[in-house]
Design brief:
Length: 315
């Protein structure tokens, strides 16, 4: 596959690396890591994200400031990172040659070349394993890939953390990642508004089905009161799934016109649950967006679907 990629790469002087909407550390870290690999190959490279706002807490990633909102190159090779479907990229990519680098089981293989491995815990792991033998992995690239990996595995605590995942992490450290610096950046730079919105959101905690389902909601009023934005809610759902009785946690974020729903499970496969509401994701982490509606009614609908699908343990 890497030979096929090299043949493709030879046909282009320019490369546009694209990341998915509502960008996280995996899509951005993978893209910024590949950015440097291909710069070192003498290519002209841009990193693009369709969204207006980028997660500030990742601004320590090398080259973060270079991320653009539009694709400027018109005859470039497209490389997409961590995006299970082409729609999640936001850009019109019809008639473009696409290299699709991802780890989602639900990936639709929309690329000309599909480098997709759902055994990997992050897209950055896919990228690392793909590039490591034939390309130079610098310290900066290793840092980007490592941050993507730490974040997507919630500090190596998700079920898809295997021997191989830790081996790759170890190789990235060997390439020079400053782990203390990464940890400081990821854990000690929170905004006050993120703590305030966390506090308000925890007040909304409700339980369903003998406390096997926990729900949390961040409302528009809460965003306004605390000055927080959507990125400040990253990780809030983990408080729901942390409770001993809870099997499935649901977090609803009220945006201006839509409700964004994130779901976590500690055992049942909830990827199809999200699909049934028009979304998608992984076995234990999935989500969807829906036009604004009554939040309680939506929670009831989700709970009904959870029961219908038998996703909870019988007590
Ligand atoms: Mn990912």
């Amino acid at each position: 596959m890497v030979q096929e990629f090299k043949v493709l790469l030879k046909q282009f002087d320019k490369v546009s690396i694209v990341t998915h909407k509502n960008p996280d550390a995996d899509t951005l870290g993978t893209a910024l890591g590949i950015y440097e690999i291909l710069k070192n190959e003498g290519k002209e490279v841009e990193v693009c994200n369709w969204e207006g706002i980028l997660p500030n807490y990742l601004d320590f990633l090398p080259h973060f400031a270079k991320i653009k909102r539009q694709i400027d190159f018109d005859k470039s090779l497209i490389i997409s990172c961590d995006s299970g479907s082409i729609d999640l990229l936001g850009f019109d990519l019809s008639s473009r040659v696409i290299v699709n680098i991802d780890h989602h089981k639900s990936n639709t293989n929309y690329g000309t070349l599909n480098i997709v491995n759902d055994k990997c815990a992050s897209a950055s792991q896919v990228a690392y394993e793909f590039f490591k033998d034939e390309f130079t992995i610098s310290k900066d690239t290793a840092t980007c890939f490592y941050v993507a990996m730490v974040t997507d595995t919630q500090n190596f605590t998700t079920l898809n953390v295997t021997n191989d995942v830790l081996k790759v992490a170890s190789e990235l450290l060997y390439l020079g990642v400053d782990i203390a610096e990464v940890n400081r950046n990821l854990t000690q730079r929170k905004s006050l508004s993120s703590l305030r919105v966390l506090s308000e959101t925890l007040e909304t905690l409700e339980f369903y089905e003998d406390a096997q389902v926990a729900t949390l909601v961040t409302t528009q009023e809460s965003f306004k009161r605390t000055g927080a934005t959507a990125v400040d809610t990253v990780g809030i759902i983990d408080y729901g799934i942390a409770l001993a009785t809870v099997r499935i946690a649901i977090f609803i974020m009220e945006l201006e016109h839509t409700l964004k729903v994130s779901m976590r499970s500690n055992s049942a496969d909830i990827s199809e649950l999200a699909v049934s509401f028009g979304g998608g994701g992984h076995r234990l982490a999935s989500g969807f967006s829906i036009d604004k509606m009554d939040i309680q009614e939506l929670l009831n609908n989700i709970n009904r679907e959870i029961k219908k699908r038998g996703l909870l343990n019988e007590l």
